[in-house]
Amino acid sequence: MNKPLILVVEDDTPVRNLITTTLKAHDYRFLTAANGESAVLEASSHNPEIILLDLGLPDMDGVDVIHKVRSWSNVPIIVISARSEDTDKIEALDAGADDYLTKPFSVEELLARLRVTQRRLAALQVGSANTDSVFTNGKLKVDYAAGCAFLDGQELHLTPSEYKLLCLLCKNVGKVLTHTYITQQIWGRSWENDVASLRVFMATLRKKLEKEPGSPQYIQTHIGVGYRMMKVEP
Q1: What DSSP designation does 56 have?
Q2: Are residues 104 and 208 in the same domain?
Q3: Which of 21, 202, 219, 221 makes the best surface tag, with the fewest CB within 10 Å?
Q4: What's the pLDDT at 82?
């Protein structure tokens, strides 16, 4: 598996050095940025394949960086932050982050998160190589070859995790998928925090997919169990 280009956005020099030393030791390519403005510039100029993002930047909040990057890119964003409150995690995930790692963190956990993200990128590329697979359900269309989803002819702007979640549901239409199964497929693990993250991603996906999220047409919640993609008539 080819190592991706990673953008490290961190203003704390010792932490930034720890991350870049770890990346270098494991043959990752990387760029660095010490504030939000340079992070957005580096992201737009060099198209990194993964972004490691601190939230407490000197010139702007990391959540604002997420919003700016998401205006043109679906690059996976892993937040690395000292903010440990659930509200902070939910805000970052809701803005479009794909994962959240709390400081202090272990080098092993950082590398594990990167490996999971690489597997997700590889899975998306494999899906894109499948040129004869198009899923249609009512007004929803998922073009696996192009890696795009459409609703009533309009493209849905999804984060990588939202897209993978949608594909997982579509490929199992009519089946109830448990929280554990979904988190294993999306993140390669099933931790308690992942179920909370799953709820956030599901909520943001529904906002984009359902005209009336309170009366969902496509995704049905099975309380305490999981979710199901319902079959919708044309």
Answers
A1: B
A2: no
A3: 21
A4: 92
